[in-house]
Design goal:
By secondary structure, the chain is an alpha+beta fold. The chain has one domain (about 1-95): Ubiquitin-like (UB roll), CATH 3.10.20.30. The chain contains 3 helices and 5 strands; from the N terminus they run βαβαββαβ.
Length: about 100
């Protein structure tokens, strides 16, 4: 079971409270976790990654084990701590400005 933490606007959009627990078939990667998340909450399709290219949206970041995974390949296996459920896969909205 993989735990996913979503930012408040996406939780509201998905009509969910708290962490999301997902069963992810096959190897746990960013791509497989996001696929499972979007399958469970279709309303999130396009909010985290582009509909066509499946690329991460510019102001969305992915973290696991206090590491920024945003620029890693979406097919790199996630850390064992995330796979085991000890640590969450965290999706956050980036803050910009000056």
């Amino acid at each position: 079971m993989i735990r996913v933490e979503l930012p408040a606007p996406l939780l509201i959009l998905a009509r969910h409270e708290g962490e999301v627990a997902l069963d992810v078939p096959g190897p746990a990667t960013q791509r497989s976790v996001l696929g499972a998340l979007e399958a469970r909450y279709p309303v999130l399709r396009g909010a985290i990654r582009d509909h066509v290219t499946q690329q991460r949206r510019a102001f969305v970041r992915f973290y696991a084990c206090r590491r920024d995974l945003s620029h890693e390949s979406p097919d790199v296996p996630l850390p064992e701590e995330v796979v085991s459920g000890a640590e969450p896969f965290v999706i956050i909205g980036a803050i910009v400005g000056g």
